[in-house]
Write a structure and sequence with these properties.
There is one protein chain. This protein has 177 residues and is mainly α. Helix 1 runs antiparallel to helix 4, helix 1 packs parallel to helix 5 and helix 4 runs antiparallel to helix 5. The radius of gyration is 27 Å and the shape is rod-shaped. The chain has one domain.
């Protein structure tokens, strides 16, 4: 005996025009694109700061043996200032964790790019479906997945960043007393 009942929930999509549905679903996709762009734009500054500060630390550290072999005001003034600058830059770099921010932003951007490409592929697949209701349902499901997974990726980026933060050593010692 064959079951002639329509698939549950499928006929609710039969009356929806695929082009209209795709237009609305593309707005959601555009929001995910905006989030991806935010991560792309906000990864440049931490990358530059991480690299510039790191380079300065390296250059100043390399200069320490030379400075320590000098006499006079270089030994008494410049050497301590360079040492202080190295320590300050290292502490600032550690505190702001520009490398972590840069990595998290880039990884999130790349993950969102993947999700957007997959959504485009799924929409292409939906366009190939001969049944209009099935095509609309497939496109809506693809968009739901995109939205859910984009939210997961964005949330995990925030979680990963905040889990990596540490109190400066002196504050951590005070807190543990």
């Amino acid at each position: 005996m064959q079951n002639h009942e329509p698939q549950k929930g499928l006929d609710q999509y039969e009356s929806i025009d695929f082009t209209s549905a795709l237009s609305e679903l593309s707005k959601i996709r555009d929001e995910v694109e905006d989030i991806k762009e935010w991560f792309r734009k906000h990864s440049l500054r931490p990358m530059l700061l991480f690299r510039i500060v790191g380079l300065l630390i390296i250059i100043m550290s390399i200069s320490l043996p030379f400075l320590s072999s000098q006499k006079g005001w270089i030994l008494t003034t410049v050497l301590p200032l360079v040492s202080l600058m190295i320590a300050t830059l290292a502490a600032i770099n550690s505190f702001f964790q520009w490398q972590t921010v840069w990595q998290v932003h880039r990884q999130t951007q790349y993950s969102l790019e993947y999700l957007l490409r997959r959504w485009s592929l799924e929409i292409t697949e939906a366009k190939c479906k001969s049944d209009r209701g099935e095509a609309v349902r497939f496109a809506i499901e693809a968009t739901r997945r995109l939205l859910k997974e984009a939210q997961t990726v964005s949330s995990s980026a925030s979680t990963e960043f905040f889990e990596s933060l540490e109190l400066p050593q002196s504050l951590a010692e005070i807190k543990n007393r």
